[in-house]
Amino acid sequence: MNKSGYAFGAFKGVFTPSVLTILGVIMYLRLGWVLGNMGLPLTLVIVTISMGIMFLTAFSLSALATNMRVSVGGAYFILSRSLGIEAGAAVGLPLFLAQAVGVSFYIAGFSESVAAVFPGVSEQTVGVATLCILAFLAFTSANLALKSQIPIMVAIGVSLVSLFMGDSAPAAETTEPLMPLARQSFWVVFAVFFPAVTGIEAGIAMSGDLKDPARALPRGTFAALLVGYAVYLLIPVYLYFRVPDAETLVTNTFIVRDMARWGNLIVLGIWGASLSSALGALLGGPRTLQALARDGVLPRIVGRGYGEGNDPRLATVVVFVIALSGILAGGIDIIAPVLSMFFLTSYGALNLSAGLETLIGSPSWRPTFKTHWALSMAGAAACLFVMIMINPGAAFFAALFCGAIYVALTRRRLRARWGDMRHGLWMILIRHAIYKLAESKADAHSWKPNLLVLSGVPSKRWYLLELADAIARQNCLTTTAMVLPENTSNERIRDVRDTIREYLKRRGVQSVVKVVTAPDVMDGLLTVINTYGFGPLSPNTIIVGDTERSEQFTAYTRLIFAVYRRQRNFVVVREEAANEEEGVGEEATADDEKGRAAYIELWWQGKGNNAWFMLTLAHLLGMNPNWAATPLRLNTVVRSESEREEAETRLKFFIQEARINAESRVIEHREGDIFDTIRLSSSEARLVLLGLRAPEEDESIEAYSAYYKTLLEKSHDFPLTAFCLAHEQVEFSRIFL
Predict the structure, then answer these.
(1) Which segment of 18-32, 46-60, 165-179, 426-440 scores lowest on mean pLDDT?
(2) Cβ pair 721, 687 in contact under 8 A
(3) How many other CB atoms are there within 10 angstroms of residue 423's CB atom?
(4) Nearest to 713, CA basis, from 544, 550, 545
């Protein structure tokens, strides 16, 4: 149901404002100038390229409009519902500025024509007075404003008849075919001409006031473009054969009046065209601003509606101020290239949106007006190409301006009430990437950890996620898993998942959250390990916290065995002060500021995949800004002083060959338990990395459980420690050697 209070059809709501904007200022005042500079062939090329972009955009627009109920805001509404509110606003704000500045453009054309008829009149004075009158008309009622466009369209039609019936032509000294002056480059002339064909914006902007936008927009838009294209082809051909003097075309911007049978009808037509175009922009601009305000992009007070038609009067005041500034700033030759950039930006985004929607092929994409994706993508590419050719610097600035708006709105984290294509776009990209990954074989040179952190409630074992995030930051994937009781309701599962996501987001941690139910926590963890993942995106490294509860040793051993059999890497992280209770509670203080310790202490044996795996993790930590200032130290143990020199030489040579930034330390251990030596040597470490023995082929769970218990006892009072077990089919040594 239409909520605006109006119910315009295709003719009154789309065709009329569109065609009157197309047949406007440029047609009367600059088309002869274009012909004089470029000649007939290039003029027709300029017209055809411009109209070609508009026809491609019209195809895309029609597909988008017939797939949704288009409301107030026109192009912004369509883009925000397809590309998302941030991208929609990034284009919608420049589009609004283009519509507001467009008011200045059309009124400047009107003022120029008035000054040509009455030479003593000030163009700026006429412009300001005209703006005030039109703003009052738009401020009062859109219905009254649109009714006034019908007689204006009649006036334009009569003026064209007068032009083509003209029996006079300016005197010329030669009868040779018209030779272009080429005083301006092709793309400069194109930039001045292009705003002439941007009339479809007027129809799109009124979409919220249409009775049936899905039918009215395509019909009215294509009809307006066909009429406009025919007129813009006929006038240059007519002028070419009637005015052989290019100098006259370039210098006499009112040449069409001099050639018409009844010159005053041309004056009437140009006044009607420029005023109707300005009025159309005065109607469309405020409605774009109203839509932006309703979505929370701008203060909502700006979009407040008044009267039966919900007219955006405050937004009209904003447009009035911007248009007034434009009128005081300069003429149409200055404003036209700026308009071209803003319009091309919005048209490119519309084409891109329709092309992506078609490529994604979501079930919700069911437009009644179907357009091939190649046409839409061609339209987007054409817009980008033309922007670069007109002015690369301006194109870059337009992209930078839109990008800045997008980033600013992303940081505001606006919550849209609708879905958009971004989820589908990511799905199609991931689908392609997964298939490609599945076809390739994992190799040490391209290996990155895909971490599965069995943390439970993040606030209880934050040190696990803090370490995992430090390893994975901006390079790898991380999943945070939690197990709830088997009888937990779906609503409770969603609440817990959302709570964890929000908690991680506040802490700046990027992680997928996985919540499962199981009769027992360990059973749930085993289920996650055995089933979680998708093809090549299955986790390759499992990170868990330790436990000192003797009744859980057997369960932990089963967990280690399961990970080892699945050929995954396993990391047990131990922090003495960690709170091991499960369940949602208050945030723990494990991540409170502790000061920076001296080293990452890696106890290096120089053989086996465990050592290389630990070195890989240490290297990834060193790439994180929060750990970059913490030096890595490779420690190796010798049994006697005679072995020290050889060990030092070997370790230093390895560090040089491996191209890592690390220090070496050789420690002599003669008697007692080696863990006492490690404890003493690493007492102030920020992190200790130790290898975890792999289960032997026939080793029982009870035997390995005893080993695990002994390991915990001997490593008592260690700093934050990670016990690492590598069993992925990757030779980690190849990462360094």
Answers:
(1) 165-179
(2) yes
(3) 11
(4) 550
Q: Which helix (H) or strand (E) segment is 595 a member of?
A: none
- Give me the sheet containing 687-691, strands edge to edge: 512-518, 477-485, 450-454, 541-545, 569-574, 721-725, 687-691, 600-603, 632-638, 662-668
CA separation for the pair 10, 3 (Å, rounded): 18
Residue 144 reports pLDDT greater than 60:
no
What is the SS3 assignment for 543?
A: strand
Question: Would you say residue 440 lies in a domain?
Answer: no
Residues 81 and 227: their CA atoms lie apart, in Å, by 30
Concatenating the DSSP letter of every residue in 133-144 gives HHHHHHHH-HHH
Q: What percent of the chain has pLDDT over 70?
A: 89
- Distance of alpha carbon 497 from the chain centroid: 26
Residue type, position 607, single letter: K
Mean per-residue pLDDT for 295-308? 81
Q: What are phi and psi of 721, to 5 degrees?
A: -130, 140
211 in a structural domain:
yes
Q: Is 161 exposed, middle or buried (0-12, 13-18, 19+ CB in 10 A)?
A: middle
Segment (H or E) for 480: strand 477-485
Picking from 376, 320, 314, the residue whose alpha carbon sits closest to that of residue 349 is 376
Strand-pair category, 632-638 with 662-668: parallel
CA distance 726 to 568: 7
Both tokens of 281, joined, read: 């922009």
List the domain range (segments joined by +) for residue 21: 10-355+362-412
Say which DSSP state 12 is in. Answer: I
Please give the helix or strand (H or E) that residue 484 lies within, else none.
strand 477-485
What pLDDT score does 44 carry? 95
Percentage of the chain exceeding pLDDT 90: 26
Q: Which amino acid is at 486?
A: E
**CA separation, residue 490 to residues 183, 452, 487, 493, 495 (Å):** 72, 23, 9, 5, 9
| Tens of pLDDT, residues 666-681 | 998 877 888 989 998 9
Say how far apart CA 195 and CA 21 lie, in whole Å. Answer: 9
Among candidate residues 412, 429, 451, the one where a domain is terminated: 412
What is the 8-class DSSP label of residue 700?
-
HSE (side-chain half, CA atoms, 13 Å) at 509: 26
Residue 539 scores a pLDDT above 50: yes
**263, 28 in Cβ contact below 8 A?**
no
Alpha helices (H) along 532-570: 553-565
Residue 514 lies in a domain: no
On whether residue 723 sits in a domain, the answer given is no
Q: Which H or E element spans position 156? A: helix 149-164
The alpha-helical segments, DSSP class H, found in 361-451 are: 373-390, 392-412, 422-439
What DSSP state is assigned to residue 221? H
Q: For residue 154, what are the contacts with CB-CB under 8 A and spacing of at least 6?
A: none
- What is the C-alpha to C-alpha distance for residues 160 and 19, in angstroms, rounded to an integer? 14
- Give the pLDDT confidence score for residue 143 in this predicted structure: 60
Higher pLDDT pick, 427 / 218:
218
**Spatial distance between the Cα atoms of 284 and 142, rounded to a whole number of angstroms:** 10
Structural domains of the chain, count = 2
- 494/504 Cα distance (integer angstroms): 15
Q: Which stretch of 208-217, 367-376, 658-667 has the lowest confidence by average pLDDT?
A: 208-217
- Name every residue whose Cβ is closer than 8 Å to that of residue 233 and which is 6 or more positions away in sequence: 44, 47
What is the domain-level CATH number for residue 92?
Answer: 1.20.1740.10
Averaged pLDDT, 193-206: 76
Question: What is the biggest distance separating any 2 CA atoms in the chain, rounded to whole angstroms?
Answer: 117
